[in-house]
Write a structure and sequence with these properties.
The chain is an alpha+beta fold. The protein has a single domain (4-80), classed as 2-Layer Sandwich (GMP Synthetase, Chain A, domain 3). The protein is 47% helix and 24% strand. Helix 1 runs antiparallel to helix 2 (56-71).
Length: 83
């Protein structure tokens, strides 16, 4: 069962990603949370058009990772498993 802290962290992650999602969806893609590890690594996966886009690495670094680090400082590391 999720603790209050995990739920709160999960909510913060989703709120941060929702700031980026409109841009991804506009291009036919999206991003999904795969897991948050015990050492607070956030693992994400691009889906749809984003999974095969040549700009995914730049979108990840400049958009998603920066937003997560700013909005959810508890997250120590952000990884994209599909890049």
């Amino acid at each position: 069962m999720e603790t209050t802290l995990e739920h709160s962290l999960s909510d913060k992650i989703e709120l941060a990603l929702n700031k980026i999602r409109p841009y991804l969806v506009a291009d036919g893609g999206n991003v999904e949370v795969i897991e948050v590890t015990p050492d607070l690594t956030l693992r994400l996966q691009f889906v749809g058009a984003c999974s095969s886009c040549s700009m995914s690495a730049m979108t990840f670094k400049a958009g998603i990772e920066d937003t997560i680090r700013r909005e959810v400082p508890e997250i120590v590391k952000v990884e994209a498993i599909s890049l």
